[in-house]
Amino acid sequence: MKKTTKPTFESRLERLEEIVALLDRGDAPLEELLALYEEGTALTKECSDFLQHAEQRVTTLQAAPIQAPSSVSTPTQDDLPF
Known about the structure:
Blueprint lengths: L8 H17 L4 H34 L19
């Protein structure tokens, strides 16, 4: 069974930029423009949620006492909320 990887923040942002460019052109049929807008709003929320979570983590790290480097774990994509 193949493990599905979650899109990264960067890939979501890249797709959002593509959608903005397509919407700016405005030459697609209305239904397609609506679908792109819907996808863009969903990606915007996901990116916003990610940034909010990252800000909370930074705030928590700043408030925590300094620990030895051996006890600090590196987060993985699976640690993210989406």
